């Protein structure tokens, strides 16, 4: 498939991967974009950086307000009259040991990364069923396939997203609805700086692995290719991608490698 002439809705579009996708899609694909995040001013700034701002609409909303997603979907549909692809990219991360992590942090990640994402998708699902076409693209993480210290809550919600969207794909294949799970490794964004620590405060520092990860531009190009190829699941990163296969075939070996890596 091609994304040309599609209406693509991107959450978490004010920075990082979401912003990178918006700029790349605007630059090289003839499509219309709907950009969402909590921050209206930042969304406006991204819109103005796009090649064709007149083909970009913004719909600010907060994923924690997951009881209000029907209204959000109605607003999004009014932008261009239809939606072809929803890219679930909004979310936050976490960096803290389990023993030091307040249950409120686990709850917040579950509300934003999981409940907010599936509530939005469920609100859009009836529209996709009615038109017998649609594509859910959900950005999870390699941490949705295997785990790492200091990321317990993050790993938990990312694993949960795989469970939900794999089921959605099976239930609605008959409705011509597609699901692509995107699993990034390290990408040089502010995800580590914005990650929550054990008490719920932001980490406010970059880590070496994230700093040395793929550029947002490189990642965005690879992700767009995966969407166009209608992949079920794709792993995008550097050597850390090997962890998926080690987990599958040599789980004890992966355990040893992760422990030795001392990744924060």
From TrEMBL:
<dbReference type="InterPro" id="IPR002347">
    <property type="entry name" value="SDR_fam"/>
</dbReference>
<dbReference type="Pfam" id="PF00106">
    <property type="entry name" value="adh_short"/>
</dbReference>
<dbReference type="InterPro" id="IPR036291">
    <property type="entry name" value="NAD(P)-bd_dom_sf"/>
</dbReference>
<protein>
    <submittedName>
        <fullName>SDR family oxidoreductase</fullName>
    </submittedName>
</protein>
<comment type="similarity">
    <text>Belongs to the short-chain dehydrogenases/reductases (SDR) family.</text>
</comment>
<dbReference type="InterPro" id="IPR053011">
    <property type="entry name" value="SDR_family_member_7"/>
</dbReference>
């Amino acid at each position: 498939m091609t994304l040309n002439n599609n209406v693509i809705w991107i959450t978490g579009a004010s920075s990082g991967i979401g912003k990178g996708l918006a700029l790349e899609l605007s630059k090289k694909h003839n499509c219309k974009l709907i950009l969402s995040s909590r921050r209206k001013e930042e969304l406006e700034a991204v819109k103005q950086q796009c090649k064709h701002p007149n083909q970009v609409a913004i719909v600010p909303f907060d994923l924690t307000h997951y009881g209000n997603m029907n209204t959000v979907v109605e607003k999004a549909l009014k932008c261009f009259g239809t939606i072809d692809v929803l890219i679930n990219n909004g979310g936050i991360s976490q960096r803290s040991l389990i023993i030091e992590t307040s249950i409120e942090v686990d709850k917040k990640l579950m509300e934003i990364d999981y409940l907010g994402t599936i509530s939005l998708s469920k609100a859009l699902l009836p529209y996709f069923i009615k038109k017998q076409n649609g594509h859910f693209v959900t950005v999870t993480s390699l941490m949705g396939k295997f785990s790492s210290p200091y990321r317990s809550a993050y790993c938990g919600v990312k694993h949960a997203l795989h469970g939900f969207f794999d089921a959605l794909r099976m239930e609605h294949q008959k409705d011509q609805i597609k699901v692509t799970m995107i699993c990034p490794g390290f990408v040089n964004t502010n995800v580590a700086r914005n990650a929550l620590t054990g008490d719920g405060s932001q980490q406010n520092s970059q880590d070496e692995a994230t700093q040395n990860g793929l550029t947002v531009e490189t990642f965005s190009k690879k992700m767009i290719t995966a969407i166009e190829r209608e992949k079920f699941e794709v792993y995008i990163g550097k050597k850390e991608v090997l962890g998926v296969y080690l987990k599958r075939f040599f789980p004890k070996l992966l355990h040893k490698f992760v422990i030795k890596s001392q990744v924060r």
